[in-house]
Amino acid sequence: FEGGHIQGALNLYRKEDIKRFYQRIHEQSAGANSTNGGRRAVIFHCEFSQLRGPTLCKYFRSLDRAANGSRYPLLDIEEVHVMRGGYRTFFANESFRKYCKPCGYINMREERFKQQLEERKQYLVPCL
After folding, report:
1. In tens digits, what is the pLDDT along the chain, a chain of 128 residues?
2. CA distance to 12, 29, 77, 124, 128, per residue, from 40 (Å)
3. Could you give the residue numbers annotated as active site?
4. 3-state DSSP call for residue 44?
5. Considering only CA atoms, which of 31, 20, 19 is closest in space to residue 62?
């Protein structure tokens, strides 16, 4: 996140953080008319969108499905996506760089971020 991120993005990498984020959305959706035309999307990504982003995306969707089981197929968030190629690909597109804060890209395996990467791997949640 410190090596560059998309403006307005949230840095959520722990199961508890994803759950709190979902609960906020779920509470806001309670009693809302699902036909109001206001569709919302949540987009997950990490550097490459190969492990962390997809794993947390699946976990988020599982929370939504569980909370809305009695209303199937309705969901609080109709669209949940994983950004293809992750932040690396997003930043590589020069026309998207204006949305990056700070405007930079540092590989997660860079020496100064290695410890942070290892610490955050422990928070990955396997999803079935």
Report:
1. 667 889 999 999 888 999 999 999 999 887 565 444 567 899 999 999 998 899 999 999 999 999 999 999 999 999 999 999 999 999 999 999 999 988 888 877 777 777 776 776 666 655 44
2. 18, 11, 6, 25, 24
3. 46
4. strand
5. 19
